[in-house]
User: Fold MPN domain-containing protein from Ramlibacter tataouinensis.
Amino acid sequence: MPLKDLPADTRPREKLLARGAATLSDTELLALLLRTGTPGRGVLQMASEVLTTFGGFAGLLHTAAEDLKRIKGLGGAAKRAELLAVMELARRAMSQRLKEREVFSSPESVKQFLSIELARKPHEVFAVLFLDAQNRLIAMEELFRGTLTQTSVYPREVVQRALQLHAASVVLAHNHPSGTVQPSRADEALTQTLKAALALIDVRVLDHVIVTQGDSLSMAEKGFI
Assistant:
């Protein structure tokens, strides 16, 4: 059913303006961005298909323009560009929040941020959050990339980058594409190696976060650091 044929108080735009954005479902929010569907397929149905195909908004955050072409009605450049722009705004907004306040005033926000950045990558990625003396984010950088099962991480490069950014502390992070969130013995050993290497330049390792598509784990919270 086209949006114009819905009762006025159930149309996403009118509902948002009357009751607030939080009252809209994910499908309704995305339908507002898409605006129109295709012949015989309303925009709400199209929005639902997009979310199902890419695994919700978290999946869309890592979807490329070419991938969106898989959805009928998203072949045109304009719609895809608008959708990708909104997803990038969401990423930047979360990053800005971490830069403006102490990262560990909300550890859950850190795990959410890292999940959005890393969880859906098909290959293993090792990233580092470099923090200043007030535990605010200086930068997040993906330093190493590996296969589905392992990543080669070079402590010297992590130390060098920490010095270049004048970091006071770091949060280590990597994803497990396999879906297992528990740290391996190799993860524990790597954490201790990096902790010792960074200690030589007076940079603290505050945490090592492991993320999967559906979960995240703080090694500090589990007592591994």
User: Anything to note?
Assistant: Strands lie at 125-131, 137-145, 169-175, 204-211, 216-218.
